[in-house]
Amino acid sequence: MRTLKTLCITLTATALLASAPAARAQAPEDLELMQTFLSIMTDYFGIIRSTHEVASDPEMAAIMQMQKIQEVYEQRGEKARSVEILREVLKESNNPTIRNAAYLMLGDTLKETGRSDDAIRALTEGLRENIRAAD
Asked: Measured over all CA atoms, what is the biggest interatomic distance in the chain, rounded to whole angstroms?
């Protein structure tokens, strides 16, 4: 599977490079343009690879989605509203990885919205849960 992905990426990059204006570069500035293009394409395929890895792992995807929800609420000036979502995740999920991420994000959000006592309680609850799981 990995080899097929690599082959697809290589073929796509080759096709894009062949159609790039700098593919028949002669002057140094043309070569620099080609290097820039290749660097951008490498970064682009790295992003695709990373996105695929996150999307293929339910734990990673859930954590990323929680972060994106926080980000959207923060951009809207309503960061405190993400507290509801994170508490809902804690009610619904039994997955330790997702719960740990939710506790950490909840603690940060509560602290950042001026609710430090609630943040301490949430983080302490997560800590107790981890200690019980570790015993």
From this structure: 67
Out of 1.25.40, 2.40.70, 1.10.287, 1.10.10, the CATH code matching 58-134 is: 1.25.40
Instruction: Determine how many CB atoms are found less than 10 A away from the CB of residue 101.
Output: 22
pTM, to two decimals: 0.68
Placement of tokens 């809207």 in the chain: 76
**85 touches 72 (CB < 8 A):** no
What integer best gives the mean pLDDT of the chain? 87
- Contact between 17 and 38 (Cβ < 8 Å): yes
Tokens, residue 20 = 């790039």
Residue position matching structure tokens 């990323």: 64
> Domain ranges in the chain?
2-55, 58-134
Apex 13 CA angle, 7 and 18, nearest 5: 125
